Structure of diguanylate cyclase:
Amino acid sequence: MGNDMQYSLITLARLLTYFLWVSTASLFLHAGVVAQETTNLETQLDQYLLGYSQGTATLADLDAIYRQMNSNTPIQTRTRAFGYRVMAMSPTEIDEQTLNAAIALAEEANKSGVTAAITEMKALLVNLYFNQGDTRAALVELELLGRLLPDVSSPRVRFLSHQAAGQLLGSVGDYEQALSHYLQAAEAVNETDNMLTLRRRMLVTEGIARVHTGMRQYERSLESTINLIEIAEAAGLEKEYARLYLFKGYLQSILLQLEAAIASFETSIEWAKQFDDQETILLNMNNIGSTLMELERYEEARDILSAALSEAERVNDTLTSRLLHFNLLYIDVMQGTLESVPALEQAAEQVRHVISESEYIDLLQYMAKAYEHAGLYEKTIDVLKTQRELQQEFSRKERNKAIQELQLRAQANEQAIEIELLEQRNLAQQSKLRNADLQKKVFYLLSLVIVLASLLLLLAWRAARRANIRLQSLNQELEYQSSHDPLTGLLNRRSFQAAMTNKQRLSDSSNKDKHPDALILLDVDYFKKVNDRKGHAAGDKVLVELAQRLRSLSRNTDMVVRWGGEEFLIYLKEMDPSFLPTYVEKLLKTIGETPVEAAGKTISVTATAGFISFPFESGVETIHDWERCLQIADMALYLGKVQGRNQALGVMELLEENKAGLEALEHNLSGAIEKGWVRTTHVPGPA
């Protein structure tokens, strides 16, 4: 629904409420003017909040303020106090009873008509639903909250509302909107100058830093974190230093500022010791050890990791102990103790069940390094292949999650509109009940109500029609997203598999004299180093640039597919096998001869490929199954990786016309090459 339509609905609903209010003016005069915030209670709440942020105020102090309140206390004061009570609870204490109490107070705020109180309760409900994991309900409340914020003058309420919105939207990956809300929260804080200003500014700055981290803008996130530490120092919040320096070190390690990261972790340890924060101390020690491993300063890393392991075992921290044990075994292997490889494998399997999927994918990179250092090249290939498959599955899950969140936002918006209309109808009904003694006036207003209701129905119909049109547009967008890679714009694996499923050309006898098709599987060399050293933004730039180059070499009948991660698949229709190596050589030159420019940096990129004709004429039988042909191309690619990268290996012909040769071709390509059963061609990349 467009913004102009929403404004019209709300405006007409307000007109309806206004005319009903005119008819019951005597009742409002009898009830008295809505009271303003009680200065004394508000001052006490300010003092409580400051004490709470410094760790000196208790729930008993808040209860003492509560005892001074009654039904005549202004609704905004009561909503604020209730919010502080919820804030003082631990996550396990917030139950269904707490949520029901919040809903009841929100309904009372709605009846009062005090915009600041209504807005504050909406912000509180956003937080409550978010903390309970009910994202849909939180988004619905956020949509309703957004309609109220333009009319709120209180800086405190605007700060709370935008802070809650930024936290929720950041959690669902809508970083641009989250950043917009945090900036508006910062504007609200800048309008205040009291004992709570620095504390609130710190919360906003931390939110901005975490949004930049989610957007992979690590340098901007680091700038915000440094500013955050300065604010904490100005406010004297020493208890926050350990956590903030830990986050600073994490960002510096991502940006490969490794020595600076170690210094930040050490500072975090010093502050954590002052507050006996053992968990933060262990986390920092592990981070320092991991950073020293990256610098290949293995003896220093061993010393601090061993000390951390002893402490973790002393406090029965099983998760940290397993991670530290894995790191120590990795150091053993990298220092030449190859007997530790089996123990390292066992440690990796134990860690796998207690860390996230993305962390385990990163851990496999260490396993690959260890295998390669130990000379176990077949295991290196296997673990890299496993890592690639897990990364592809992880990326698929992330894409599905993004689509689901988009649908959830659309549904939340529709539900918020329905709730808003229902609330307006409830208000109208309550007004009628309160005006039972004014039946004569109701009679005169009845015609006006009917006209306004008709207009509302007409506008609602038009709004529904526009919503359907918008839904159709979203469906088209989702259909495109389901078949294309969001980063490069290339076709994705799903669309290629669908094309192969529908392919009927191989069964057409009229095509016997035409050339076969071809499959080229291509993988960017050392792509993880680009991400680690240049940043993920530079890595994304490399993938986008290579996608454009591959498209420039393809015909309209060809398919260029992002197969997953840094891997691309090129499907060529009717390609003469004798010209296929020349085409692959041109591909490698197009990729490797011209470096990629990203963020003012020059990045040299090469690729390794495997290729094969499809269908493949083996002499024994013709392989019509594209997946079998792609499997052979994949083995050729990995042989190219093992032999040094920046090259391509093509499977051209099966020389041994027997079943054993065909089986070796499909399952052990290197063995088939050594026995002379298959003819291959080697295509070097640019020097």
